[in-house]
User: What shape does this take?
Amino acid sequence: MKSLRFLGMFLFVSAVVAVSVEAHPPAVCQSPTEPAVALVSRMVANELKNRAEPRLWAYVITSREGNQTVTKDQVETQDGPLYRVLTINGAPLAPEQRRQDDARMEAYLHDPSQQSRLKESHQEDEQKFDRLLRLLPEAFLYDYDGAEGALLRLKFRPNPNYNPPSYEATLIHNMAGTMLIDARQSRLAKVAGRLSAKVEFGFGFLGHIDEGGTIELGRTEVAPSEWKTALAHIEISGRLLLFKTVNKQQYETRSNYRAVASDLRLWQARAVLQR
Assistant: This one.
């Protein structure tokens, strides 16, 4: 299981998100008076504050996996996530497929090592998104670019004075694109970027990511002041470590968010998924 869920570089995040859904009636934004970077900094502070007090959720994930579109119901727990496959290519599972998926879930519930690996992967994805948020105010230059209802639209481009501290930051820093921020709450609704230049690691000896790759990350308000992943769309290619070809293509939506108990354990999640 991904997790956005889109390895030590941001291109392998599973993250995260792009179509925003407004929980309030549309409103037209007034012309902003503060510098765009100040709005971005306030948005980042609000996102990090909210993420410091995480809640647990159940939600539906639809992802493209090769030639298949798979829909799963997933629930978060204190021990990590648990999921149950709902449909493949829009069709409910056949009896044998359901038996196999139930057996997979049952085996997972009795495999502590696998649970630990998935929990760690889930936490790493969350940490990657935190790192992405923290670099936004310094890594880019911003300009206002109008509004979409209650969302302010900003254009961003690489800040030439920013010195990326990691390969992950180097990749993100080479992107240019647009960002949508909810004007009422100063929360991230969408960010879409395109690699404006080929990115080389170790002067090209360690590999490169091709120019033109795209990443979309977005959020949707699922409860008052609670913003979660709605869609992640990543299209990146390149070559790493000699002849290892990179071809990261991820398209994942998340919907139907339902809050669950903050102390929910993994063994209890099966009942939530089978309701």
Observations:
- The mean pLDDT is 84.
- The radius of gyration is 19 Å.
- The longest helix spans residues 112-139.
- Residues 10-273 form one domain.
